[in-house]
From TrEMBL:
The lineage of its organism: Eukaryota, Metazoa, Ecdysozoa, Nematoda, Chromadorea. It comes from the Eukaryota. It comes from Bursaphelenchus xylophilus. GO terms for cellular component: mitochondrion. It holds the Pfam family AcetylCoA_hyd_C. This is (pine wood nematode) hypothetical protein. GO terms for molecular function: acetate CoA-transferase activity. Residues 308-462 form the Acetyl-CoA hydrolase/transferase C-terminal domain.
Length: 474
């Protein structure tokens, strides 16, 4: 059977955690009623969404796997039948969904999300939807301990194999724990959803209502265009901070891709990350990333979700070099720290002169979310082999020419990684080493890697804030 593996990527065991309640489903095992194998009820999409009643909590598969067709049908259903007080839970939502284009939908449905996408960003900042600040490693627990109920889960699955096994495709993340706690599972089968392995496995007998086909392919994002300053950041990180045999964590976008593009001479790299994108393909094909030196799951790249181009999804489809785990495992700080030469690379919106990192907000406006930044910043820095590195990488200025290194963070902005978390800050102008540095030394390091046009202003602001000029400690 294609989904069989020599090991399973497990979540943290439920025993010993008293506040947890028993999940309703063991997704990787067929479900029986007595001695009879359960079968999904095959329905058209309009009938599938009718299971959602007033007051229900609906979990949404998200990111690339956002069930666009189910969500559009749900939007029509709640308005036509006046179904109100429905709450949806998710992370990043993508695609042409009613939240993005129908302001009336918020009279019926209130989205709650741990990561804010453009689809609901305006609604969140208008008080019509909710942002839940949360470490990504805890996002499975909120379902296991029923902090957030799951009356219905909307999933977007890969087609079943000959033994009835589907997969959660490119989004295992918090979707696996949400699904195992769902009272009802409504799933669409999507031919564009890659077959993936690990905790993404789900037997068709767990599906209560099955929509046999969906017209909308899973969402993709184009390969990032790398700017010259981002290319320089990639070079600085690759040449100075990434060792041979390092286990990597990166996100999506131009800076992660810039780093990956500079690793073509590295050997025996590994992958343990919450997510990955197109930039990894050439390194795996050329053998730079082979996972051979990993402490955990040697030979396998471990991740929670993926997002990229169709070319990338085709690369993942049926590829047993990738194993998908729920974020309760991939983002567990102890697991991260156990990896060989763990090297985490993350980004930020702004950082102040003491090293406080803002990543989820611009002033009082919520922009994105915590994601797994803190999980990997802390886990990487505290690698058990003493070789881990935690890196925050940013361009020195925004596209509008404003410094990302600031004297004081904007009023109302939220700190994601604290000044005590941050180890390395990299811009196109250099590498700032902040660990165990005084505030004045931190300011010195950060001003040194700021844009040259901003340094004088930052020095004056530092003197005003600290009562002394920034300096390198002896």
């Amino acid at each position: 059977m294609r989904l069989s593996l020599p090991f399973r990527v497990h979540n943290r065991p439920l025993s010993g955690l008293r506040h947890y309640e028993k999940p309703l489903r063991k997704l990787a095992k067929p479900r029986y009623k007595g001695s009879v194998l359960c079968q999904p009820q095959k329905v058209i999409i309009e009938d599938a969404v009718r299971v959602v009643k007033a007051g229900d909590w609906v979990y949404l598969h998200h990111a690339a796997s956002t069930p666009v067709d189910l969500l559009n049908a749900l939007g029509k259903h709640v308005k036509k039948h006046d179904v109100r007080n429905v709450t949806t839970t998710s992370a990043l939502l993508m695609g042409d969904i009613p939240f993005a284009r129908d302001p009336e939908i918020y009279d019926y449905i209130r989205p709650k999300a741990i990561f804010i996408s453009p689809a609901i960003r305006k609604a969140v900042n208008q008080g019509k939807a909710d942002y839940i600040p949360l470490f990504l490693n805890e996002s499975g627990r909120i379902f296991d301990d029923k902090r957030l109920p799951v009356d219905v889960a909307f999933l977007n699955l890969s087609p079943p194999d000959e033994n009835g096994y589907c997969s959660l495709g490119v989004n295992c993340d918090m979707s696996s724990p949400a699904a195992r706690n769902a009272k009802l599972i409504v799933a669409s089968i999507n031919e564009s959803q890659p077959l993936t392995f690990g905790d993404s496995k789900i037997h068709v007998s767990h599906i209560d209502y099955l929509v046999s086909e969906t017209e909308t392919p899973i969402s993709g994002v184009p390969k990032a265009v790398i700017k010259p300053e981002e290319e320089e950041i990639g070079r600085l990180i690759a040449e100075n901070l990434v060792e041979d045999e390092a286990t990597l964590q990166l996100g999506i976008g131009s800076i992660p891709d810039a780093v990956l593009s500079k690793l073509t001479h590295h050997k025996n790299l590994g992958l343990h990350t919450e997510m990955v994108s197109d930039g990894i393909i050439s390194l795996m094909r050329n053998g730079n990333v082979n996972n051979s030196k990993k402490t955990l799951h040697p030979g396998k790249g471990v991740l929670a979700f993926a997002m990229g181009s169709k070319h990338f999804y085709d690369f993942i489809d049926g590829n047993e070099d990738f194993v998908f785990g729920s974020v309760g495992y991939t983002n567990d700080v102890d697991v991260i720290a156990s990896n060989h030469r763990m090297t985490g690379i993350n980004s930020a919106i702004e950082i102040d002169l003491t090293g406080q990192v803002v990543s989820d907000s611009i002033g009082t406006s919520i922009f994105s979310g915590f994601g797994g930044q803190v999980d990997f910043v802390y886990g990487s820095a505290n690698g058990k082999d003493g070789r881990g590195k935690s890196i925050i990488a940013i361009t020195s200025r925004t596209e509008k020419g404003h410094s990302k290194i600031v004297p004081i963070i904007k009023e109302g902005a939220g700190v994601v990684s604290t000044r005590a978390h941050v180890r390395y800050l990299v811009t196109e102008y250099g590498i700032a080493d902040l660990w165990a540095r005084s505030n004045l030394h931190r300011a010195y390091e950060l001003i040194r890697v700021a844009h040259p046009g901003d340094r004088e202003h930052l020095e004056k602001a530092a003197f005003k804030r600290f009562g002394a000029l920034p300096r390198r400690d002896l």
